[in-house]
Amino acid sequence: MLREEAGLPYAESLHWNIVPWYLGTADRIAAPGRSEIQRAAPFLHEVVSMLPALEVVVPMGRKAQAGWAAYQETYAPKVHTLPTWHPSPRVFASRPAARQEILDVLRTAERILSGGAVSGA
Question: Do residues 36 and 29 make contact, with C-beta atoms less than 8 angstroms apart?
């Protein structure tokens, strides 16, 4: 698991989908659109409000990045944001370097949480 490889402790991480409910049909998942991301914003706010020591967010994929950017601008401007690829098999198949790039981003998140210096973040 990439989180483990990066040395990012499970107890210091939370996994949250930008839209926290299933989209799609019984046969196929669907990506969220702008309206679903907007509808989900209050739930994101509820979760973030329960994290007073939030330091780093790693939005994985374009939809998560767009949703987080809209939220962060108003509610969390001082949180480190480290965008990266969505960790899906489709991304890994089409972009062989994506796995290493995700791992590097997660390692940067771990360094921030450990109080280490971060270059370029």
Answer: no
